[in-house]
Each structure stands twice: as structure tokens, then as C-alpha cells.
Write a structure and sequence with these properties.
The protein is of the alpha/beta class. It contains 12 helices and 8 strands.
Amino acid sequence: MDLDRTFDWQGRRIAHATRGSGPDVVFCHGTPFSSLLWHPFAEALARDFTVHVWDMPGYGRSSKDAAHAVDFGTQAAAFAALLEHWGVREPHVIAHDYGGAVSLQAHLTERAAYASLMLIDVVAIPPSGSPFFRFVQENPDLLAQLPDYIHRALVRAYIGNASATDLPAGILDALVEPWTGPDGQPAFYRQIAQYDEKFLRDNENRAGEIDIPVHIVWGEQDAWIPPDRAHRLQQLIPGSTARLVPGANHLIHYDQPVALMHEVRSWLDARTPTA
């Protein structure tokens, strides 16, 4: 699925794509990933839905200007602006990892309206952030100067740790590639350095305000964000539902794609009976 369009927002170039027809479904990716995770799911759903994918500024095919902030608040504002650019009103939003905090902030702070929200192994409430995250936050400039081959090996190992199985070399290469080169390498460490839990605390404090249908899906073997976070989120968000998926680590898209597609499709079909 080619990101064949760009949206210019506050000096940033946001790569995105839209396919299909029917009720609007928007996919949000996390870190250190891109919309690539969602392309097979979006393509399959395009038969019955209008699907939208995008790379957040600082990620994937979008611009990676060092002068541009990439924190949760900025990404939420960018998402709200992109929804307006698309002319999308009340889409079904499906978010993974960092995309969870971004979609929640866009809804709670930017007042973006959704028909429903599916949160999949999300960064959403504190505490969050691995020991690696904390190390990078303490040494962002140093790590950005690593020799290219060491940086590539580090990113490959980091991303590979998110899967319950060995990712195929082609997929792992595609996930690592945006973080290489003179723009990608510093961008990788910059997005971690700007990670700020104040936005997660805000989500936690305001979760009771959420009054749309919310479904939480979590890999039962998530090594990045413990599955008990799914239960905490369910308790915080009124009326939400939750399901754990056996055999899935953080990258449930590759570990259990059939189970994830079943969750997504069942959730959407229940809310769009005419699709």
C-alpha cells in the first residue's frame, strides 16, 4: 500500500493514503514503527470501508526535521488536522502502541470526534517506557552519533524483541529502514527523548470522560507493555471491553494476524451493520 499523498502541516510533510469506500476507518501506528504495520489490514478492509493510513511526523515516510517536536501533544494536533484535511467526521479509529496516546489526546484535548476506538497494545497511561527508553532519554545525543552499523543492529534487535516469533528478514528490514541514514538515525533517538508521561497522566485522569465505544486488545505475551495494562484501561474507560490474544507479543500484527483481523472486523461489523 503506497502512501501516495502528503499533507503539509506546520512545516511538516505527513505521508498518508486512502483506499476503498464505505464507513471511515483510520489506523494509527506506534513507535518505533509506521503505518506499514497496518497496510495488509487496511487493504483487506478497503472492500467495505474507506480506510486511511498515515505516518506520524518524524516517522516512516513523513518528514523528520530536527526542529519539529514529535511529542504526544504535537502528534495529536497533527492527527486532528489530518482528519479535518480528509474531511472525515466520526471515523472508527484503530490505534497501536504510541498511537493510542495520540488518538486519546486528539479525542480528549483536540476534540476530534470518533464513532469508536480500538486500542491495541497501547501506550496510553503511566507507567510506561522500557529501560532502553530511559537510557535513550538520558543519552540522546550520544546514541545519535553511533556508527551506522551499530545503530542498525540496535534497532533490529529492539524491534525484533517486540515479536513472539522471528520476524521475516524482509519485514524487519522494512521496519528498520526509516530509522537509518542522516535523517532517520537522529530521528529515532529524538522521538524517544521527547517522550513525556505528562500526556499519559492526562489520559489517565480524563479517561472517565470517554463516552464512545472502546475495545481494548492486548497480546497475552506483550513484553513491552504488560497485559495488566489492558485491565487497568478497561477499568478507567466507562463501558469498554477487553480481550487478551494468546501467542502474541507487542507486534500482534505479525504474531497473530488472523486473530487481530478477527477482532478488528468483528468490532467494525458490529458498529456498521450496513457495511
